[in-house]
């Protein structure tokens, strides 16, 4: 019997790769994102290649009413959700607090903290329908250490770290597994979004070393999701070989 995996932010990067990895196993998917055309095209691709059932939900995680309406619209055959992957997120801007833009702070706080909470709150009743419910939050090494010009993004990922711990405690009696996967640098659209569309500057972030790929993250999320029922990875920090933590990189340039 296929499982149903709900993945927020599946129009690019980690979310897309995670969806593909589970589709390979024949699991059914609920994929979300704001870019409707991309989302629909990706769903068609998954259906065609992997012959899985895919439901698309097009909403902004920052808008509570949109989140609730989208999740309320889930049809019966998708109403048992086995795994929720809270992946949708972003960094917006990279500057010191004194030079920072409050609009950027709002976007990050609303997406990475409030969005994750809204989605989790709305999906939980459907997770309870599963005999193996599991929440996987995508945190970051930015949630473990703070670095120059990372301030508010790091704060939001520290919040994901805290919320993951809190969920594990609060949901203990409900038998819901809670895992945080905390990656370091991986090349996706992340830096382009962070640098407000400056692709050349984004490319430079990954120069001189081999960053992780979205597929690397998907591999580990899939591993955490396919362990025996009694075994829960609480927290996992992932980096490429060239990265020791947020501050130390072995760059060959
Ligand atoms: P991408 O920019 O490639 O993907 C981000 C995804 O999040 C997109 O699908 C985007 O969809 C979705 N998203 C962003 N904002 C919203 C929103 N308001 N409502 C709904 N969906 C939204 O980046 P990554 O794949 O790299 O990032 C995925 C997660 O991993 C994020 O939480 C990020 O913080 C985290 N991360 C990334 C790392 C990296 O180095 N790449 C390292 C550690 C963690 P759409 O725009 O269509 O809405
Ligand atoms: C993204 C990784 O190093 O840009 O969460 O903070 S980093």
Which range best describes the helical content: under 10%, 10-25%, 25-40%, 40-55%, 55-70% or over 70%?
40-55%
Which CATH-level-2 architecture?
A: 3-Layer(aba) Sandwich
Strand order of the largest sheet: 3-2-1-4-5-6-7
Question: What is the string of helix and strand elements?
Answer: EHEHEHEHEHEHHHE
Q: Count up the domains.
A: 1
Q: CATH topology, what is it called? A: Rossmann fold
Q: Please report the number of helical segments.
A: 8
Strand content: 5-15%
- Small molecules bound: NADPH dihydro-nicotinamide-adenine-dinucleotide phosphate, 2-hydroxyethylsulfonic acid
Main sheet overview: 7 strands, parallel
SS-derived structural category: alpha/beta
- Mind telling me the CATH class? Alpha Beta
Number of strands: 7
User: Termini distance?
Assistant: 50 Å
CATH superfamily: NAD(P)-binding Rossmann-like Domain
Radius of gyration: 17 Å
State mean pLDDT (0 to 100 scale).
Answer: 98
Write down the overall geometry: globular
Q: Residue ranges: pLDDT <50 for 5 or more in a row?
A: none
Report on the architecture of this protein.
This protein is α/β, with parallel strands linked by helices and 253 residues long. The protein has one domain (4-238): Rossmann fold (3-Layer(aba) Sandwich), CATH 3.40.50.720. It is 42% helix and 14% strand. It is built from eight helices and seven strands, in the order E-H-E-H-E-H-E-H-E-H-E-H-H-H-E. It has helices at 13-24, 36-50, 64-72, 102-127, 151-170, 190-194, 199-204, 214-225, and strands at residues 4-7, 28-33, 54-58, 83-86, 134-138, 177-183, 235-238. The chain has a seven-stranded parallel beta sheet, with helices on both faces. Helix 1 links the parallel strand 1 and strand 2. The longest helix has 26 residues, at 102-127. It is globular and about 50 Å long. The mean pLDDT is 98. Residues 140-142, 150, 184-185, 246 line the site of 2-hydroxyethylsulfonic acid.
């Amino acid at each position: 019997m296929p499982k149903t995996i709900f993945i927020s932010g599946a129009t690019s990067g980690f979310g897309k790769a995670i969806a593909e990895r589970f589709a390979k196993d024949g699991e059914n998917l609920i994929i979300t994102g704001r870019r409707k055309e991309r989302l629909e095209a990706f769903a068609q691709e998954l259906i065609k290649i992997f012959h899985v059932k895919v439901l698309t939900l097009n909403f902004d995680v920052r808008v509570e009413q949109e989140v609730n309406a989208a999740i309320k619209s889930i049809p019966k055959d998708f109403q048992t959700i086995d795994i929720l992957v809270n992946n949708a997120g972003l960094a917006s801007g990279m500057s010191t607090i004194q030079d920072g833009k409050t609009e950027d702070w709002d976007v990050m706080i609303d997406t990475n903290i409030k969005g994750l909470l809204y989605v989790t709150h709305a999906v939980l009743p459907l997770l309870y329908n599963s005999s193996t419910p599991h929440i996987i939050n995508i945190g970051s090494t930015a949630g473990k250490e703070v670095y120059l010009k990372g301030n508010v993004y790091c704060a939001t990922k520290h919040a994901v770290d805290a919320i993951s711990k809190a969920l594990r405690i609060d949901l203990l009696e409900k038998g819901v597994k809670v895992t945080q996967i905390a990656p370091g640098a991986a090349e996706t659209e992340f830096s382009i979004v962070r640098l407000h569309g400056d692709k050349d500057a984004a490319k430079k972030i990954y120069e001189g070393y081999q960053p992780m790929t979205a597929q690397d993250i998907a591999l580990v999320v899939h591993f955490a999701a396919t362990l025996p029922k009694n075994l829960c990875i609480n927290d996992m920090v992932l980096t490429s070989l060239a990265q020791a933590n947020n501050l130390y990189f072995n760059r060959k340039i």
